[in-house]
Amino acid sequence: MSRVAIVTGAGRGIGAATVRALAAEGWSVVALDRCEDDPRIPYPLATEAELEAAVEAAAAAAAEFASEQETDVAPEVMPFRGDATDEAALTAAVAEARRLGDLEGVVAAAGVIAGGPAWQLPAEQQQAVLEVCLGGAIVAARVAVPVLLERPQPRSGRFVGVASAAAQRGMPGLAAYAAAKAGVSGFVRGLASDLRGTGITANAVAPGSTRTPMLEENARIYGLGSPEAFAAQQPLERLLEPAEVAAAIAWLMGPAAAAVTGVTLPVDGGLAL
Question: Is residue 168 in a domain?
């Protein structure tokens, strides 16, 4: 049976790119997204149409993988509408993943942003950021890791969270977001320790300014005319593409990263320098 991954926040941005990157490497993927706005968040979230488009792109990549492997059986990519912070939704997604094959990995990519001075940020926005960015990663691990542990030894398994360069840099107006993303880094360190000797690794990536709808909202928070203004902060002097971050996630999910656990990998164009 095919190895299977669950990706949350799969409707667009880094999550959608990760679904495609994993499919291109032979993973079957359950692509989870809530596909509706959060009334606490002041910008539109991914839609069902965007999730379907992400799945179509990933299915094309899976078909190309099958062609290269000279097999008629391509990895499956299926959309799954659900809230990444809801244990029941994740439990149902895990059931779908097990129908596709052997669940070997989880990518917790769901995230939102809200900004303003820490003492002025509306409490409901702060709570949404913490719930989705950090709580979503914790829920994904709570539900999926026990399933990964059911696999017989010697086993392998992967858990990857999405942190942020903001976790390491003081950025005005983003205290709640920075706290949530720093929490992801701390969580994977603790999770990696809990998984000692199991063959399952836990890591995170910390993207810099990446060309996503979230960065567009960040530009609005700062009163910038375009997200391109963020490019100057990074030594690469350009924005990152979601596919570049997804490539790092796919590497952490693969066999080449078997000796890597408990780390947060900067994929930030040098922003953390």
Answer: yes
